């Protein structure tokens, strides 16, 4: 339903999961949104991405608590169990999989999810502009915006959601932290299941189709292969992490890659023939790889004048072991929209107050903008920075448990750890949290008091046994 205009125009740069969700969340709260994306459409690379309870809770609010519209059969993986194998294909651990469980969550085809978010945004009447590469930002005391070529686009604030290689990050935060390679590369692919439909050795992967999907993973020395289906067997996807030096890895997030290094890694595994039957059918152009890079938390996500913020991977890229990349991006998007709403309302009330007592008008008008700054972007950052930074560091801390997992060694320590799935992460209700804490954090900032975040464990440590 249409909501009254909040008076705030938000420019969103980058329409990945963070940017599209920010556009939708801002629009739901009455802000006018213009979104910019450098790609020509939502059809991007990416295989499967997980959304746990903390983000699904946010998305369910778009449809009065129902996930029915989002959890579309064509874009999710209907996985019923997780099975972890050794290199012989023997199951070494298994657990039932319930997507509605907040800890496990739904698995989406990334492009399918992006398309769904795009459709929702178009239906909401949001102005989305594709094929626009935003490299320059500006702000003054009253406005902020971007340059498209030489054209200056004006908004009240800018949300940069332009991903790992963000141009907005340095422009907004003045920080450019070194991205550290963790010594591994990941290969990924997704393609139509028709490619393996007539291959007898690959039939095992389609054993649940067309009723359900499977997602087995295989752990060998320095190599992990996860393979599965999506949309009840309509798509095949796989991901392979290779520890140590791999020639074709580059610094780029994503690039087309050959499957050969993956085939080489599993060639001597006893289960090689069943894995190769799938890997070798990956169509040309469907495989891509990226070096796995860790980045330390930024000191701030907010610009000097407080009218620009970075969110999602642009602000805090995670290693995949936290399973929180998209989840925290969605939490960011919802939180920033609420903070702007609260700041906007404060600004409006302040202005009304001023208009009634006209003597103080100019003083209060000026103050209202500092109120926008204090209560909007900075409060957003205060509310979320500690939580997200802990998860960011936790994803790095956990890397060895996954990279060194190797069941062939028969060593208990060789099992991948699931400790990253922490209840304070996936059970969090970020909308309720921001609504409850906004004023407390804003007052703390305004009065120079310390704000103690309540969305992290009390001991401030990631791991809660
Ligand atoms: P991103 O998903 O990186 O989105 C950033 C968006 O900003 C992109 O659409 C990008 O084109 C756009 N952009 C960048 N620079 C500019 C610019 N200058 N001007 C305008 N727009 C710009 N995670 C998984 O778990 N599984 C996957 O299979 C997977 N595949 C991925 C594939 C790709 C191509 C990318 C970029 C990311 C992928 N990820 C994947 C990561 C995952 O999507 C993110 O960790 C998470 O969703 C947070 O998303 P984000 O919106 O912050 O960043």
Helix content: 25-40%
Spatial strand order of the main sheet: 5-4-13-14-15-12-17-16
Structural category: alpha/beta
In terms of DSSP E residues, the strand content is 15-25%
What kind of sheet is the major sheet? 8 strands, mixed
- Small molecules (ligands, ions, cofactors) in the structure: flavin-adenine dinucleotide
The low-confidence runs, each spanning 5 or more residues with pLDDT under 50, are 345-372
**Judging from the principal axes of the Cα atoms, what is the shape?**
globular
Order of helices and strands: EHEEHEEEHEEEEEHEEEEEHHEEHHHHH
Count of helical regions: 11
- What is the CA-CA span between the terminal residues? 43 Å
- Rounded Rg: 23 Å
Average pLDDT score: 86
Please provide a written account of the structure.
With about 475 residues, the protein is α/β, with parallel strands linked by helices. The protein has helices at about 15-30, 55-60, 110-125, 170-175, 260-265, 270-280, 325-355, 360-395, 400-405, 425, 430-445, and strands at about 10-15, 30-35, 50, 80-85, 90-95, 105-110, 125-130, 135-140, 145-150, 150-155, 155-160, 180-190, 215-220, 225-230, 235-245, 255, 285-295, 310. The strands form four sheets. An eight-stranded mixed β-sheet has the order 5-4-13-14-15-12-17-16. Strand 1 (about 10-15), helix 1 (about 15-30) and strand 2 (about 30-35) form a beta-alpha-beta unit. Helix 7 (about 325-355) crosses helix 11. The radius of gyration is 23 Å and the shape is globular. The protein binds flavin-adenine dinucleotide (FAD). Flavin-adenine dinucleotide (FAD) binds next to helix 1, strand 2, strand 3 and helix 7.
